[in-house]
Amino acid sequence: MIRYGILGFGHHAVKRMIPGFAEARDSQLAGLWRRNLDKARENAREFSIPHVFETAEALCASPEIDAIFISSPDALHLSDVLLAAKHGKAILCEKPLGMNTGEVEQMLAAAKAANVVLGVAQNMRYYRSLALIRQWIAEGKVGKPVLAHSQFAYSAERSPREWIYDPALACGGPIGDVGVHCLDALRFVLQTNVTAVSTLAHSDAESGAVESYAVLALALASEAMATVTVTTRASYRSLVEVTGEIGVILCENGLTVDHPIEVVLRKGDQVLLSETVTNADAYGLMLDGFAQWTEGRGDYLAPASDGLHNQKVLDAAYASWRNGRREAIS
């Protein structure tokens, strides 16, 4: 049993992580820290969390904690990871890992020096929808994939995360926030990497220096091509689709945990296969996957060494938006 402490307990912890810990078998939420100590104590009482820590340092130093789950704003991830590594704790960090590739490389070096595991909380790698799409592609049900698309749309108008449009705290707008989920989902199901990216994006008065919607065109090592479309100016929608030489996989709202979803295999107008799955247990599976990896009992699907590639794509995507050129991924 791995005892987790959440560093940066907030809206995401309440909405997603508390239910995830309730379903997990090898993971226990043992402590938390947040800047407002009164709210931290209130959270601990409400969710029966044994330990509240007055400082982030105290959380990371505690013998009652085995692993640190970092869910602070993006710009704080580097210092939080370095703090956890300093105290020899296993580290599971929210996406995007950092503000840029250099920060992620620092994180990896610190984790290696401390001999601790470092993972990305890329929960969607534990989605049953993506596992099924990946399986069907591997089985050759669509032939060789040639095109793929993932979309994530939501409205940020009433978002409780007040920092998401602050460039001092957020890696970016929806590209960094949910675009990283989309590109990672495509990499996962297609089992490939991104070799180049071109970006079109738009900012507005509310989003300020960061984008409010964007389109990313991705060249893939598999020779397929993909697009990622994201916005904080629309009703919720998430989509994954893959077009192969002999078939198409469609999954409307394929990146949701809130209700069952249908994964469909089509050839022309004909539905060849249709399967309904749920992603509701993904957070618990992610926590347990990381716990087992920490204990040396299995592999974790989203190690930070892999997350480094996603960060390189984000860096290239933002560079492309600024300079109007296609950016290669090293």
From TrEMBL:
Pfam families according to UniProt: GFO_IDH_MocA (PF01408), GFO_IDH_MocA_C3 (PF22725)
Assigned EC number: 1.1.1.292
Keywords: Oxidoreductase
InterPro entries: Gfo/Idh/MocA-like_OxRdtase_N (IPR000683), Gfo/Idh/MocA_domain (IPR050984), GFO_IDH_MocA-like_dom (IPR055170), NAD(P)-bd_dom_sf (IPR036291)
Organism, scientific name: Silvibacterium bohemicum
Residue ranges occupied by any GFO/IDH/MocA-like oxidoreductase domain in the UniProt entry: 133-249
PANTHER family documented for this protein: OXIDOREDUCTASES, TRANS-1,2-DIHYDROBENZENE-1,2-DIOL DEHYDROGENASE
Name of the protein this chain belongs to: 1,5-anhydro-D-fructose reductase (1,5-anhydro-D-mannitol-forming)
Stretches assigned to the Gfo/Idh/MocA-like oxidoreductase N-terminal domain: 2-121
Family listed: Belongs to the Gfo/Idh/MocA family.
A molecular function (GO) term: nucleotide binding
